[in-house]
Amino acid sequence: MKILFATSEIAPWMKTGGLGDVAAALPPVLRAAGIDVRVLVPYYPALRRAFPEDETPVVASLGNFGAHFAGSALRAAVAPDGTPLLLLDSLIYFDRPGNPYLGPEGHDWLDNHLRFGLLSRVAAWLGSADNHLPWQPNVVHCNDWQTGLAPAYLKLLPGSHARALITVHNLAFQGLFGHHALREIGLPESAWTMHGVEFHGHLSFLKGGLHYADAITTVSPTYAAEIQTDEEGMGLAGLLRARAAQLSGIINGIDTVAWDPARDRHLSFGYDVRHLDAKRRNKAQLQEEMGLAVRDDLPLLGVVSRLTHQKGLDLIAELQQQIADLPAQLVVLGSGERGLEETFRELAVARPGQFAAFVGFDEGLAHRIEAGADIFLMPSRFEPCGLNQMYSLRYGTPPVVRATGGLADTVIDGVNGFVFREPTAAALLAALRRAVAAWHDPKTWRRLQADGMNRDLGWTNPASQYAALYDKLISRPAGH
Length: 480
Ligand code: ADP
Description:
By secondary structure, the protein is α/β, with parallel strands linked by helices. It has helices at residues 18-32, 45-50, 91-94, 112-126, 150-156, 180-184, 205-212, 221-226, 237-242, 277-289, 313-318, 320-325, 338-350, 363-372, 388-394, 405-410, 425-439, 442-453, 460-475; strands spanning 2-6, 36-42, 58-62, 72-78, 84-89, 139-143, 163-168, 176-177, 198-199, 202-204, 215-218, 247-249, 300-307, 329-336, 355-359, 375-378, 399-402, 418-420.
């Protein structure tokens, strides 16, 4: 079994979201299970620094993909964990600093269709009969819109080719471009149909992937069901329903080494399920660090999140009076939309000692909140998978979550956390009240903590589901 994992992000070198973590974590676990996985990723400056040119031999020059795709090459490297990397070296498209998608002004690069068209084209080439390298994958595993056109190229190319799988990490990002892009990236006009890559007058990279791939996965079973509904399908529900037989959900794992309360290098007091007393010391330290009153008799609510509409944090802000009256303390770490940043800054100023906020990105503080808070809040409007609720389960910090996507698949109401349905402040408050009541009952609380801490949240289980899917794809005839 030879798998090409094609991605536009890989942690720790280039990461804007969950995809970067998955690209770093899943391939080594698959390799440990005996599967020959290689990762195709652009040779961004951060990767160029980590794997310098003179140590990464060119394994192929890529010349014949059309005028816009001239002058690139594939280089081979090996990640520190042993995963082989195929680095797509294109000076004009990928030797740019910072975020992989946005220029210095914060706007999408105007040539993103060429940049990720090339990445998709090269992924497809690797899986095609034109690839005469010693290594040829049987499955090209694409991720999100940035590699979404690889299945289209594969299907539209002559000759036998690898199976294509696409994983959707977030349906909200679709890679939409004007009609001109079709010709520039070398796809035939025949693909410009509703049953192809066209989406309401645009070229959609993601739709191309969803239409042409042999199988589709997304990052939780509940999200797989939700995206087939008109409410949450972001305009693609019809296509996803039509492909329901090829669509499944596989929940992401977490990094159980970096996120281990017993060995976490960001904590002063390690603990596990049998030594929960040390968790209280992390709470006191967090209260001190954040300028909160050091009190053991109040539940401390924690939030670590991008501050965006998706995450439902406006619902928490709406409840400031009720949270203060519970009574409970609140600590928020996040950055994102200006308005929400301002809201949480103001809340902290208005209620010193009871509410605290840090606006910014701080990995260490994220770990200390997971460990030091009593209850974790994640009222997301939608959540393809979500990592923070899994970290909080593992840290004995039962989460209060909305029943959506991966939150619904990992948090069980009254067993390891608290779940509410409606995306309203009232529904959140009702769940929060139940959580606080449970917190005041130590026996109940220990049971909730223990359930989360004892759960297997690592990558072994998800990786075996991907392996089974690869196996199924390889062993069945082409076409769908
Ligand atoms: P999403 O990928 O939608 O942002 P997830 O819960 O899946 O949400 O993952 C978010 C990741 O980013 C987690 O690892 C979380 O700890 C981290 N994170 C988010 N905001 C911050 C922040 N302000 N500081 C530190 N870590 C953050």
